[in-house]
Amino acid sequence: MTVASERDTLRPDTAPPSEISRTRKPRRARRTLLLLVAPSLVLLLLINAYPLVYAALQSVRDGSLINAGEYVGLENYRATLASPAFWRSVEFTLIFTVVGVFGSWLGGLGLALLLRTRIPGRTVFKTLLLLPWVVPVVVSSTAWNWLVATPQSPLPSLAEALGLGTPLFLADPTLAKITVCVFKVWISVPFMMMLAGAALAGVDHTVYEAAGVDGATRWQQFRHITLPMISRSTYISWILMTIFCVNDFPTIFLLTGGGPVDATTSLVVLSYRTVFQNFQVGPGVAIAFLMTVSLVVVSVALYRQIRKAHV
Fold it and tell me: What are the structural domains, with CATH classification, of the chain?
């Protein structure tokens, strides 16, 4: 054996054929998976890209549902941001979203913690709790309209019998806002309960036992063990529920139609009215794009919190 061949044999960066084949296999597997997924990715990109680009073009034109109209630049966005109706919708959308997200999260987490205890009829109770989320929103909104819509409805009649007057839940602006927010929390609690229950199922009971031995109270265990260990799932649920609340059209439209006097008109309802009732496609699409930008900002902020969350 020559000196050069001995050096080649002893070089540390020279790998045997078996190791080379093992490193090539993951690369081939990734390439194969990419080729299998590529058609679906291209299809999804085309399905979502075309409406997005077309809507972006409409937002900078002064057109209608059947006519593209003339190019007006950012005039639709300027007019939208200068509109008092837009900012009233922004205010209600913020209230609706904050109450919907945190109200449903608190209710869902509380029920998920309750269902972890040994209560009689836990399975039946859990099934009944899912009904508000499983039942179509058309049925739920119809039931709530029957409960509160008129002075002869059950809840106003009960309030009158208790000497509280006859509250008009859907005719008074403040009561209408409260009713819509409560309705949103009611139909969203089961979804948050399932997410919280799945997160709590991954928490090891031995951690609580060790904390109990060290003298930690229930509140300390909840604050320093439960909440940190389910923080990632919590942020994910907040992102999803924020998107659901901002984009929620049927809950508001079926219950109040955006009234009274536009008190419960959210951004998505305002966008619908602008496009399909006032036939102003450009301003309506501009409102939708501003909603999209806001959702992206909130989602990115919460996603960063997911990456930072650790136990």
Answer: 16-71 (no CATH), 83-308 (1.10.3720.10)
